[in-house]
Design goal:
alpha+beta; 4 helices; signal; Lipoprotein; Immunoglobulin-like; 5-stranded antiparallel beta sheet
């Protein structure tokens, strides 16, 4: 459901690319997600007389770089603006696929000939959206005067994000899975549980497989995965082990999904589909200790 909301300034950054450090130049972001492919949409004609500002040829792209995926932020990329002195002071996404959000912003200066990048957080996904277009509204300060610029935005990236999130929501509604509250650490290993609970699913739910992150492996203990939550049962507890497998500090620092793990479930005989889960704070602390132990062992060798 679409609804209007006040536009507040949104935290955002002008990207500095590798071509001599020029502000706002596009640079490869390393994203491998299909949703990270940008699509372009032409702006409606707009010119603010007497300011040196001309947005009649402006376009916006929407991208979902890997570096922003863990925080559920998209990158709005503005091109084609002619300006002597302009700063983006706020932004808002209006999409039928996501509830609106607002956030206080940093200032983002617009430079002629360069891409201006604004990071916008996504609201809660809407899994049965109305048929409506997507726009981005930018609040821009031109020579000290703030005005709004609303541009039609491409929908392909947002459609991909929403499809993935709605698929995961369907699985979690059928049989939510989460890390248990008990955990113990031994060196670089942390033993804990996955708790699979019946939701809307009527029949068997198979916890089919699990996958770790860049830093931590995740596996069932003693063949505990796969396991089945049988029809008529409300819950099953699955023992699992998390192990620190990458010990170099730069990998931990650069990983954007260090504590994001995947679990595949097959619900009522359907093909397995994955959900992403995150450990609670206490388990994250134990994983940090396991990583530190891993690093200490590597340095002593």
């Amino acid at each position: 459901m679409r609804r209007s909301s006040p536009l507040l300034a949104l935290a955002c950054v002008v990207a500095l690319a590798g071509c001599g450090g020029s502000p706002g130049v596009d640079a490869p972001d390393g994203s491998t997600s299909a949703a990270a492919v940008s699509a372009s949409s032409a702006a409606t004609s707009s010119s603010w007389a007497g300011t040196g500002w001309d947005a009649s040829a402006a376009t916006v792209d929407i991208a979902f770089p890997r570096t922003l995926q863990a925080d559920r932020k998209i990158e709005v990329r503005l091109d084609g603006v002619v300006t002597d002195d302009a700063v983006v002071v706020g932004a808002m996404l209006d999409s039928p696929r996501f509830m609106p959000t607002n956030q206080v912003a940093e200032n983002v200066r617009i430079f002629d000939g360069y891409t201006t990048r604004v990071r916008v957080p996504l609201g809660a996904v809407v899994c049965d959206p109305p048929d409506a277009g997507t726009t981005v509204t930018l609040e821009v300060s031109v020579d000290g005067v703030v005005q709004s610029l609303t541009l039609p935005a491409p929908d392909e990236v947002l459609a991909g994000i929403a499809a993935d999130e709605c698929a995961m929501k369907a699985v979690q509604d059928a049989a939510p899975v989460a890390f248990g509250s008990d955990a113990t650490r031994s060196g670089t290993d942390v033993d804990t549980t996955l708790v699979l609970t019946r939701g809307t699913a009527a029949g068997d739910v198979v916890l089919d497989s699990v996958a770790g992150s860049v830093v931590f492996d995740l596996a069932g203990i003693d063949g505990a995965v796969p396991t089945t939550l049988a029809a008529g049962s409300d819950q099953v507890v699955v023992p699992v082990r998390l192990s620190a497998t990458r010990c170099d500090p730069h990998v931990f620092a650069e990983s954007k999904k260090t504590f994001v793990f995947r679990v595949w479930e097959a619900v009522d005989g359907a093909a397995p589909a994955y959900v992403e889960i995150r450990p609670p704070a206490a388990l994250q602390d134990l994983l940090q200790q396991a990583f530190d132990e891993c690093g200490s062992s590597s340095r002593s060798e």
